[in-house]
Amino acid sequence: MALAGIHMSPIPPLDYSLLYHERVIRSVANNTRQDGQDFLRLAAEIPIRTEIEVFPLGDANRALNALKNDAIRGAAVLRVFQG
Amino acid sequence: MKACLLDSPSPIETNPLALRDAPDPEPAGDQVRVRVRACGVCRTDLHVVEGELEPRKSPVIPGHQVVGTIDKVGDRVTRLRAGDRVGIPWLHRTCGVCDYCRAGRENLCEQASFTGYVVDGGYAEYALAPEDFVYPIPAGVADEQAAPLLCAGIIGFRSLRLSGITPGGRLGFYGFGAAAHVAIQVARHWKVEVYALTRDVRHQRLWSWVRCGPAAPLPSLPGSSTPPSSSRPQGSWCPLP
Predict the structure, then answer these.
(1) What is the pLDDT of residues A26-81, one digit of tens each?
(2) CA dist., res. B11 & res. B32, Å (int)
(3) What is the mean pLDDT of residues B122-144?
(4) Looking at residue B229, what is its pLDDT?
(5) CA distance linking residue A57 with residue A74, whole number of Å
(6) Does residue B220 surpass a pLDDT of 70?
(7) Integer CA distances (angstroms), B178 to A34, B15, B75, B175, in order
(8) DSSP line for B19-73
(9) In angstroms, what CA-CA distances link B221 with A71, B78, B205, B207?
(10) How large is the ipTM?
(11) Helices (H) and strands (E) in chain A, counts
């Protein structure tokens, strides 16, 4: 199991039997540039689509509030300069 | 320039980010200046804004999924030039000489700086980044579409790798948000059987989109109409076809 959050609430206790048999729980910290290069190459090849909700720059608080309340479908994006 | 600045962390309900004028950043040395067109909003930004991560710069401009066009370069920039479209990610700079960096594990560099946290990020009209730490953005991907790839995408990809999943294997997502909706596309590309565990039906709306495409009607939100017939009770696994 790989946990990708940079911050999480405390992890509750679990029965050791769930971890026994050499099961692994690990965190994921940041990424290397190689990760980014490999992923973006693959993203173009697949190609990967993203579902986004666009907000103007001045609505950053509103976008983050929506994210906190699970009201974003996909990813929120701030639009800054256009054209 | 216009920028969203965080003076001190506080709950997002108090609107801690203030849109105001800030000096245009000037690129120096190996830095490029990016005229920002789009910046993804990440849960890490929320942790920065609300103070769940210890403040490293104040005021700070959040945002680490930055897509834009280089408009100015420092005097030691050699490869990139004005007009290039690039992305600025979370990993802003590493030392390049520590044990981690030399072992190919620069993500763990103890001197690393991070965009939108240790240095100013992309909730602004302009942002700076070292030439060697920005990515070219694939042609044909719109700015707003590309922005979530820079953290939700990359960190999800690293997580897939670290999970040890292999083609033909079975994968479970705990929660299904921005990162998972990208990672599932990689997993399917790798012919992986995918399951997801979500807190409620709103999260299942997203995998419905992934499964059926953006043209497909999305299930309605709970309370507003009947939940999608494909939804499962809270706490159960959903196989994703």
Answers:
(1) 999 999 999 999 999 999 999 999 999 999 999 999 999 999 998 898 899 999 98
(2) 33
(3) 96
(4) 42
(5) 18
(6) no
(7) 21, 23, 37, 10
(8) EEE-PPP---TTEEEEEEEEEEE-HHHHHHHHTSSPP-SSSB-----EEEEEEEE
(9) 10, 51, 8, 14
(10) 0.94
(11) 3, 4
Q: Is the dihedral of CA A57, B131, B29, B112 positive or negative?
A: positive
Contacts of residue B145 in chain A, CB cutoff 8 Å?
A: 49-50, 52
Q: Which two tokens stand for residue A28?
A: 């994921």
Based on its alpha-carbon atoms, the radius of gyration of chain B, rounded to whole angstroms, reads 20
| In the predicted structure, residue B89 carries a pLDDT above the cut 70 | yes
Kindly give the residue spans of alpha helices, DSSP state H, lying in B112-165: 143-146, 152-163
Residue B135 identity: Y
B99: three-class secondary structure by DSSP: helix
Contact assignment for A50 to B125 by CB distance below 8 Å: no
In the beta sheet, which residues pair with residue B21?
B2
B130, B30 Cβ separation under 8 angstroms: yes
Gap from A19 CA to chain B (nearest CA, Å): 15
The contacts of residue B56 (CB under 8 Å, 6+ apart) are B114, B117, B118
Main-chain phi, psi angles of B71, to 5 degrees? -120, -10
Chain B positions in Cβ-Cβ contact with residue A46 (cut-off 8 Å): 185-186, 189
Whether residue A4 contacts residue B180, with contact meaning beta carbons closer than 8 Å, is answered with: no
pLDDT at B211: 61
